[in-house]
Structure formats: C-alpha cells, structure tokens
Please model this.
Amino acid sequence: MVSGSGDNTLKLWDLESGQCLRTFEGHTAAVYSVCVHPDGERMVSGSGDNTLKLWDLETLACLQTLKATNIFGAVAISQGGSRMVAGNDNGSVYVYHLANKSPVSPGVLVSNVRYTNAKVVLMGESGVGKSGLGHRLAEDRWVVTESTHGMQVWPLALPQTVVEPGIEREVWLWDLAGQPEYRLVHQLFLDETAVALMLFDASRLDDPLREIGDWEKALKAAVKRDPIKLLVAARTDRSSVTLTEEKIRRFCEERGFAEYFATSAQLDRGCAELKAALARYIPWERLPVTGTTRLFKALKDAIVRLKDEGIVLVRLTELRQRLQLALPAETFTEDELRTVVSLLGGQGLIKPLAFGDFVLLQPEQMNSYASAVVRAARAHVDGIGCIAEREVLAGTFDAGDLPRLAQKDEEEVLLRSMVQTFLDQSLCIRETTGAGDLLVFPSQYNRERDIQDHPTVFVTYRFSGPLPNLYTTLVVRLHYSGFFDKKELWKNAAEFWTPERRTIGLVMKRVNEGIGEIKVFFENEVPDDTRVIFIKFIHEHLLKRAQEVVRERDYACPKCGKLVVDKAAIKARLETGKKDIPCLYCPKRIPLFDLIERKFQADQFEKRVQELDAQAQINLDRESLELILVGQAFTVVAEAGQIFRPTPNSDWGIDGEIEFKDNEGKASGKRVYLQLKSGDSYLTTRKRDGKEVFYIKEERHLEYWQTQAYPVFLVIRSSDGVIRWMNITDYLQRRADADKDKRQIVFDGEPFNFISVVKLRERFIPRR
Model:
C-alpha cells in the first residue's frame, strides 16, 4: 500500500507486517493523491507544491516531474497505463501521456539518491560507562567523563558487511543519561531504535542485571517493532564481571538478547568486536529506505555538518544563507529547505521549533535542559514536584552542573520551546496561582501516599512499561479532561475531585523490573457512572501506552463492606458462569457481574471516555498554543530591537507588553499591552457583511482594556500560523454607537512582524 502524507512524503507499506518499506522525498508540500501504475513498478503522486511526480517503486527514483497548478484533486492512471488524469481545485483537469520508464516531455529529469539510517542507543543506569563507551565507539578515543546529563548524539562509522548498490547508509549513536529524573524525558527519544546496547555495571555484587528490565520495558513501549538488543558489561578494567558465563547466557536467551560483550572503553577492550557486531546486527532489511533528490541529500548533509560545528540555534533565513554559502553551486527555494528541515526533524537529528522560524540543530540540548528542570521540580522545598514557570522561562532555576548555553537569547528560546514540549507530551500540569503559573510534574513528588486508611480499592491494574511516564501522562490527562479536577498529588498517588465534589483516586507502585500496579479507589458516595468513567479512562490509557495489561476487580460486600480476599475463588466462579459469591462475614451474597461491570462494557461509556481524552488533548493544545504565541511575540519584538515582557497573571486580559527603546537604545517607558489569542475559534465571519468578528467573552476584560493608560493590541494566531494584530483601544474609542453588541470587535488586523513593530515604535518615538 502507498500513502501520501502531510509531511510532504510518500510511504510504501507492507500491509501484513505494518512496516514502512520505502519513503519517497521530493515534494515540498503535502501529498494529496497517489496512484500506482498498472505495471506495479511505478506510481504517480500529486502535491500542493503544484507538481505531479512519476516514481519508480523499486529504485525510489523520481522519473518525471510535471508542473501543474493547484493539484488537490485525485490522480488516476488509465487501465493500459499510457494516460494519467489529475484534477485541481479550480475545476480544471490535466491529461498527460506517460512514456515507458524514461522521462518524456513535459517533465524534468531529477537525479536521485537513496539512503537509510539506523539508530543505535546506549541505555543503562547512571555511572555504568555509557558516555565513555560512546566516545570510544564513535571517536575511537578515551574520554574521562562524569555522569552525563541529558543526551549525546554521534555519527557512527561501522565496518561494511553487506553493501547494497545505490543505497547510502548512516548510523547514529545516541547516549541517554541514566539518572531517574531523565527517564521521563528520554521516553520521547527512543522511537525508531534499531539496536539497543543495554549496559550494566560489571562490578556490582547485588544482581548487576537488576535494572535492565526497566530499560527493556521503556524500549518496548517506545518502539513499535522489537529492536535488536545487545547486552554489554562496561568498565571491565575496574572489576571482573561478577556473573558466571552460564548465568549471562541464560539471561540472554530468556530475555531475547542477541549477544553479550564485555568491554572497557579506557583499555579499548571488546569495543572493536562490539562495532563489528553492530555492523552485523543492524536490521537494514527492515529499515525504511528513503528516496530523495540529489539536492535534498546535499542540503541534508550540509545541515549535518553545521550540527558538527556546534551551532545550536538558527532562524530558517540564517540557515538558508549558511547553506547558500556552503553550497554555492546549488539553487533551492525556501519551501525545499523547509521540507528538508521537516524530514530531519522527523529523524530526531534536529528540531524545528513551533515559533520564530527557529531550527534547533542540537536537540540534545533541549533534553539536557528538560531533565534539569525536572530535577529542579523534584527538589522543591515542600516535596510537591513543581517549579515556577517564570523561573524556567527566565533561566533562573537551579540547573545544577548543567552546561548552559553561552547565548542568553538562545537559552530563552530553547526553554520556551521546552515548556511547550512538556505540554505537548502530557508531562506536566500548568497550574495558575496567585503568584503565577506553576509547572507541576506528578512523578516528581517526594511524598508517598499510604492507602491503608483510604476507601476500599475497587479495581487493580497490572501492566508493564515506563512507569514514571505512564503515571505522569495518566494524571495529566485526567486533570486536563475537564471532568476530573486535581485535588492532591503524591509521588505514587493522585486524588481528584469528581463533578459531585467527591474524592476519587489511584495509587501506583513498582512491583518488579518495569512492572507496575495501579489500584483505583472511591469515596462511597461517588455515583456509579462517575466510577465507570474514571476506571474506563485509566483502562483505555493503559491499553494505549502500556503492555501486558491485566484488570482485576476488587469486590466488597454491599452489606458489611468486607473485602473478598480470595481472588482464586472469584476467578473460579466467573469461569464457571456464577454471578455472585457468598460473603464470609455476613449472610449477604456479593454480585460479581454487577451494575458497574455492565456499564463498563457499554458502548456509551467508551464513547464518553474517548470524548474526555479528546478534550484533554484540546486543553493541552490550547496551553501549548498559548506558549507558542507568547514565544512568537518574544522573538518578533526581539527581532525589532524592542523589549517584550509576558504578564505573570493574564486573567484580566493582558498577556504581555512591548516597551519601546529610545534613540539611545534605552527603555523609554512608552509601551503597548498585548492580549494574545491562538486558534481559529476566536474569529467568526459575520453573515450580514462577511467581516471577521472577535467576541469578548468576559465583559470585565472590555472594561479593563478601556481603563488602561497604554493602548491594548489584540494579537490572533490562526491555525495556519498567520499572526495579525490591531489596536483595540483605538477601535473601542471610535466604534459607532449603533453597534448593538458592545462586546463585538470587527477584527481588521495587519501582519504581526518586526516591520509592524518598528512602524509602531516610530509612532511613539520618531527617528531623529
């Protein structure tokens, strides 16, 4: 099967395995239609970049590029394969004659390159020697390293074992720090792992392999297809391996490790053998091959070289200038560069930021900063796992021994994007308080909850996976669902208010390596429907993100309240079709398939949970988009050479201010206020005249804006990334009294960019 994608690529899939076999690069806009030629060897794609492309499915070569306008309609090929028809969005239809397998006019011959890449990840506890081994494998040198913070990425040259003609192969080696505070973030970077090197401390006497299971579960949760696993004892120069060869052999067989290696990066012992094994074990045959134009490959390689030079953050315009200098013989458009940046971002090698047109060439820096923020939240004096958002965005939090970026402005941009990533990935709750917004990380609380004195446990879930990540995302999404309201958090438990203002909650504990257990409890007065929704939400969350999920009901007598402790008896009666079980403490019989169980299986509750999870995503997206727009305002104003300050508490309708600099470059005291809104829902088209209207929901905001000493500007970002602004103070002063609804603002904004900011400054401070 072939599919077109919004990321400007086409993908060829194996329907049985679900594996992506080929990726075709070359379009610079979304692919809207695709059709496979009757010969099964070619296909045609239509894209919003106004081209049709004829591809060879085996070699990934683009045989022909045809220019056409607004190709948003279907593409079809005649039964004989000699004609192609394409429709566009203005009612026109294009008919083309297809030659055999060589390009014919009209068309442009494009030289192509095929490449594939493999991701090798170093995993293991802190201090086992991952960074030292990484330097040895990637750079063939011994580097004395302290405990690594965050993440490092190296290109890795391996001895060639099998060479496939016409395909370039790349290997990237990723080193992930092992401290507990990093694991919450590392889960975002494990996808697409081809080979995992699981390291352990050879000198430990108390079961050196004890922690391997946690890393295995995290890997399994992040990677769709099982990667190759190699077991590695590191730092064997410090101590001999305390395990017998027989125990290591059995461990590898039982846990699916392909091979075991004993290494010393300092003495270069076992490292060459490990590199040779990597060359053998990388599953190139199941890694997708990408076909791209020679130009795209040249741009990609040049960007990777900029990474190697240590450049951290660039705007797209600056990146284009650098690439034009590096590739003087090449001509490329901004759209082509954006496509290459997007593709490299999908591989994790760089990260396009959501605001300011920034490209982060060193995404490992964001990983390091994110982990430092998580660690700072865990160190909160009251043990409540939170940190002030303003401290994070200003970079004033305690970052410990984190190597900070030298450029303050680069750090500010990175930190703002990092907070947005936390929200995008459901890793924290953004909580508004009188002192400003807090970032709350549920898994970083230091207080533990004892369930002994709590209401009776109702259901228990056992599962495997990355436990901190599973717990955090569950609590965050429950809170953002809008149905449950966070009441109190602990390191291992969370309580929520129900709509009826009753307590409902969960307790999680680690049972074994990567194995967790969640117990769900309620106050007795919680309605059955609310109980079912809460249980079902947890149930669906675990099915989506965890493995080996087992649900076990706990039953209590409705008369005396005593819990049935004989789980085997419950299981036996359910298996034999019995619907109840006698209470051991009173004459009452306890129903097993009760009202809760019947509702749990009902479609209406599954649909309700899906709606709540979708609402959680909407609310998280809203928080994220707000941060994106604040970040955009920050970068636009900085580009204009002025001062932007976000407002700590925007509840009254002011999200930030711009203070203009005088002609000596000093703060002038002259400013404007900004109300920031992100999303298409804020503007509606008025039927009577077709004008865009912003409706002021809070009347107190209208009154507040009209009393300000400085002009208030409304800034709106639409879903397509277009940002406009207008002076609503002027509008409110000159608005015709004939308007019936004083809370309607006819929005006629101009583009919000550095040019418009400079023009506005000149109204306040004329040039000399």
Remarks:
- Residues 705 and 712 are 6 Å apart (CA to CA).
- The two ends are 66 Å apart (CA to CA).
